[in-house]
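User: Could you go from structure to sequence for me? I need the amino acid at each position, not a summary. Structure tokens:
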């Protein structure tokens, strides 16, 4: 029995040593593989290119009819990843780099030298392009119905006291191209942005806002830059003399009052405003719309005022007119 027990202990010990040996070999192989894969290698890759561009009157994107062949260097890990992932690269290029190809009016070509930078950006910094073997990539961009429409900025801006929106709200670009079926784009006269809300504004507002999507319609731009000019103002008023225009020669016309009050908002740090900056008239020709009478009322017209003023008001808006 003692001899049998010694044999069992021997095999148990040898079996344990064998397990340790196999585990050590596997670990060593794994570490060696990790080291090898971390090294940089040169390899050749083949991709289809999904190109987005801004060709007017044509589809926005297309997949290349031929593949781009790229020679580049990367770590073993990156090469394996590139090999097993989808063999399609998505890039954007301005339409100035696209050239017409052949008799088919829908075909456009892109030179490999022009596309190299965009390919590098898409592949990432871990992959270094050494050369692009393909000469020209060919894409089919079919025509689409389109038209140019203005952009309407939706906004709800409230300002702090003594602050106001002083100029027309603007967007850049102020119009975009829309693409879609003829019967659908014919009913669209403008596109809207998503709503911009701002409370208690006391300084200019600017930023980027997305356009509200329309089902079945594609936009040349998905977002626009906007600017809302919020400025501090002061309110002031002055007395301005009223002039009579279109008075037939020889007529004796007396208006009363001969001066009216003009109230306005003006930006701080602007020039001083004087009564001479305003031109207010009473148009005598309005009298021909009334029945015969010696005393009539004429609605005043503001012919000119400084452009930088806002919310200009005339009090009173009518003057009496006495015809002698």
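Assistant: Here is the amino acid at each position, in order:
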């Amino acid at each position: 029995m003692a001899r049998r027990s010694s044999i069992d202990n021997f095999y148990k010990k040898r079996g344990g040593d064998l397990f340790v040996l196999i585990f050590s070999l596997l670990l060593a192989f794994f570490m060696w593989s990790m080291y090898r894969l971390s090294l940089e290698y040169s390899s050749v890759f083949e991709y289809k290119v999904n190109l987005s561009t801004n060709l007017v009157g044509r589809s926005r994107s297309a997949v290349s009819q031929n593949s781009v062949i790229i020679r580049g260097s990367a770590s073993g890990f990156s090469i394996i990843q590139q090999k097993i992932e989808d063999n399609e690269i998505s890039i954007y290029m301005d339409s100035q780099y696209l050239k017409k190809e052949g008799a088919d009016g829908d075909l456009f070509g892109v030179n490999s030298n022009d596309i190299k930078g965009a390919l590098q950006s898409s592949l990432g910094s871990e992959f270094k392009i050494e050369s692009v073997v393909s000469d020209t990539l060919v894409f089919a961009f079919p025509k689409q119905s389109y038209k140019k429409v203005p952009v309407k900025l939706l906004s709800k801006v409230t300002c702090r006291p003594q602050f106001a929106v002083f100029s027309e709200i603007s967007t850049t670009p102020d119009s975009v191209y829309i693409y879609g079926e003829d019967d659908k784009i014919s009913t669209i006269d403008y596109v809207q942005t998503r709503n911009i809300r701002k409370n208690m504004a006391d300084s200019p507002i600017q930023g980027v806002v997305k356009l509200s999507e329309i089902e079945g319609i594609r936009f040349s731009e998905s977002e626009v830059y906007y600017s809302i000019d919020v400025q501090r103002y002061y309110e002031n008023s002055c007395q301005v003399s009223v002039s009579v225009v279109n008075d037939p020669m020889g007529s004796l016309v007396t208006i009363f009052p001969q001066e009216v009050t003009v109230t306005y908002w003006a930006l701080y740090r602007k020039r001083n405003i004087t009564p001479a900056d305003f031109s207010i008239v009473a148009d005598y020709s309005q009298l021909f719309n009334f029945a015969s009478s010696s005393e009539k009322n004429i609605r005043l017209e503001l012919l000119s005022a400084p452009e930088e003023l806002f919310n200009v008001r005339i009090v009173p808006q009518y003057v009496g007119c006495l015809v002698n």
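One structural detail worth keeping in mind: Helices lie at 2-38, 76-84, 112-123, 182-185.
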